[in-house]
Design a protein that fits this description.
about 60% helix; single chain
Length: about 140
């Protein structure tokens, strides 16, 4: 990859838009190269790699603040710190999955009640959403 890419070419190569790059620069996630006198800023291939790293980390659920913490841990001695951050994220993901499974159970139960009572009484789904106490599964 050329070491003299414009910001537009970097955006295309990384699959983001130019404003995303500028936003990351404002957050200090990405460096802003110097502008030569009367010229256009040029970016190297390592810039695209860092941008892709940020996007992959976000896809795994890391916030931009967490990505910033990961970016400073690139040296091999920092592997245990990176692992610790990943473990924290995994715990949050597992808690979210448990919450979603509980929500799925409640919704299935409400739908089953709705099927059983077809039109005989008020809709159990609406009644439950109106109540202050949600059923637990």
């Amino acid at each position: 990859m050329s070491s003299t890419l414009t910001i537009g070419r970097v955006a295309v190569a990384a699959g983001v838009n130019v404003e995303t790059i500028r936003f990351y620069q404002r957050l200090s996630l990405l460096a802003e190269p110097a502008r030569p006198p009367g010229g256009v800023r040029r970016y190297g291939g390592e810039f695209v790699a860092r941008l892709r790293f940020i996007k992959r980390a976000q896809q795994l659920g890391f916030s931009l603040a967490e990505v910033q913490r990961l970016l400073v841990l690139e040296d091999p001695q920092s592997c245990s710190k990176a692992r610790s951050l990943a473990a924290e994220k995994l715990a949050l993901v597992e808690a979210r999955i448990a919450d979603l499974e509980r929500m799925r159970g409640v919704l299935k139960e409400l739908m089953a009640r709705c099927d059983v009572r077809r039109g005989k009484v008020a809709c159990p789904i609406i009644a439950t959403l109106t109540d202050r106490v949600m059923p637990t599964v």
